[in-house]
Design goal:
- It is a single chain.
- With 224 residues, this protein is mainly α.
- The protein has a single domain, classed as Rhopdopsin 7-helix transmembrane proteins, CATH 1.20.1070.
- The chain has helices spanning 2-40, 62-87, 90-112, 134-163, 167-190, 196-223.
- Helix 1 (2-40) packs antiparallel against helix 2 (62-87), helix 1 runs antiparallel to helix 6 and helix 5 packs antiparallel against helix 6 (196-223).
- The longest helix has 39 residues, at 2-40.
- It is elongated and about 55 Å long.
- The relative contact order is 0.14.
Length: 224
């Protein structure tokens, strides 16, 4: 009788754990974007049109963005575990969780290796590109790798959703991946070009919105 009771409750517990992990993906983006924007509009000398959000980890209040990186990274990694359960089989089941997890790990790297001060931020920094350090180089390297993982995850998940007949979701995932890739290419190729940084902000918000909505969709399927 005890064994039968255990077998009855195991799927329920498994579904609850899956919803909890997917919930991390639902909250990660809104929290990250809210905290970053709150700083962007209040930190002295920060210009949303010129300075990437990574710069917020610099200066006396930089610990706020560093914590934002780390907490969002852990939530994203937790989401990747929920994604593994939600997709479970096929190429997407194998690769999407790894790619999303890689994106999360890259955020830990971005927190550990801050960007180099430049373009007048933090306050008191000379205007211009500034000196390139090992920390700044590693920040760009791990960040770029993580961004490419996120783009690849969009495309892998889009293929899975297309095969399932969820054409709208498949198109949305591909558009998100393409938009984010284009915005990343814009800032990587010419961050000083007017509009490039704002385009990247748009790409970031689009990516996190996609992840939140995907988390919500998979969570509802786990409940059904």
């Amino acid at each position: 009788m005890a064994q039968a009771r255990q077998l009855t409750h195991t799927p329920v517990h498994s579904a609850s754990a899956q919803r909890l992990l997917l919930g991390c993906g639902l909250l990660a983006g809104p929290v990250y974007v809210t905290v970053a924007l709150a700083q962007a509009f209040t930190r002295a000398g920060f210009d949303l049109a010129r300075h990437p959000w990574s710069f917020l980890a610099l200066g006396e209040l930089g610990w706020i963005q560093t914590a934002n990186f780390l907490l969002t990274a852990l939530a994203t990694i937790a989401f990747s575990a929920g994604l593994r359960r939600g997709l479970s089989t096929g190429r997407a089941g194998r690769w999407a969780p790894r790619l999303v997890g890689g994106f999360g790990v890259s955020m830990i790297g971005a927190a550990l290796f801050p960007a180099d001060p430049a373009m007048g931020f933090p306050a008191g920094t000379p205007d211009g590109p500034g000196a390139v350090t090992l920390s700044g180089t590693l920040h760009m390297a791990v960040g770029g790798a993580g961004f490419l993982c996120a783009v690849a995850a969009c495309y892998v998940i889009a293929s899975r959703l297309s095969r399932e007949g969820r054409k709208g979701w498949a198109i949305y995932s591909r558009v998100t991946g393409t938009l984010f890739l284009a915005s990343f290419a814009a800032i990587a190729g010419g961050g000083a070009v007017p509009g490039a940084n704002l385009a990247f902000v748009t790409g970031i918000v689009a990516l996190w919105s996609w992840m939140s909505l995907l988390s919500l969709s998979l969570s509802r399927r786990a409940t059904a």
